Structures are given as structure tokens and as C-alpha cells.
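User: Quick sanity check before I run a bigger batch. Here is a single chain. Can you write out its predicted 3D structure?
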Amino acid sequence: MRSQWVSDDTMKCILTALMPANRLALLVSLSTGLRIGDVLSLKTLQVQRGDFSVREQKTGKRKRIHLGKALQTDLLSQAGRIYIFESRTSQLRHRTRQAVFKDLARVASAFRLKGISPHSCRKSYAVRSFHVYGDIRKVKRLLNHSDEAVTMLYAMADELSQNYHKSTIYSSHK
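Assistant: Done. Predicted structure follows.
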């Protein structure tokens, strides 16, 4: 399944309906552009520092993270001994990506939304960053992408989504 971009208004509704820990994990992804697996593997000691580096699981690249004070406080208020997002079964492991995905799928189904996944937060981050900076190279650096073409797909996901919906509505009325 290819994840879809989600507007800020729709994302607010989705976040409201999620379980609190999953909501917080997705908020971190929305704020940092991290993939959900990297968010879930954050350790309590890292977040206590505020500014820290993460080695991305997918690419092995390093990324510098700055959490705002409010987000840092929220994370630490529910943090486990080792991981911010502890596993339901063991404090020695972190929550799984599947746990977040299942909760998000439940909410998306209730709202009759298709193509929504935790990766939608990364796309929303890219779109917002592109609107703020207006520079695709800056967004590429923020996402740690190697390919500018992939970054463009992320950064312009809002426009691509709107054009897709316009074309499907137009073609269905022929």
C-alpha cells in the first residue's frame, strides 16, 4: 500500500481518535520527519538530552533531531525505563510499528479514509517543510533523501493528491 498525504485538518481528527501513546509517536514523526520505526526506537536517555542524533534504521544515515520543549515533556511523561515507547509485553523492547499501524488503520477505517499509514506523517512533514522553505534541496536534507526526485514526490504530495482527486472526479462524470 502506498501511503497518502493527509491535510492538517484531517490529521488533527485522526490524531484525536488514536490511543495516546500512538498519537504521541505520530506527533514526533510529524515534527521531525522520522519514520515511525525510528520514532518508536527512541530511548529515554536520548530524549532527556533534547537534541540528539538518530541512526535511521532504513538507510543507516545519521540525522540530528531537535524536539521542542513541549514535545520533549510529553514524551518523558510517558517514557519507559529504557524506551520512550515501551512494548506492551516487555520494558526491554520498544513498541512495534504494527501496533501503531493497527491503531491508525482502525481510525482511518472509522473515518472512511484510504491509504493512511504512519508514513503519511513523513509526507505531511515534507509538504509542510516545502511550504515553509520553498527549497527542494532543503527538504531533501531534512528527510535525508539521496534522490531529489523522491523528495519532490513527498514535498508536492498535497498537489499530486489534489490533482489525482480532480482527475478521478472528472473521469467518473464522463
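The first strand starts at residue 51 and ends at 55.

User: Great, the batch can go ahead then.
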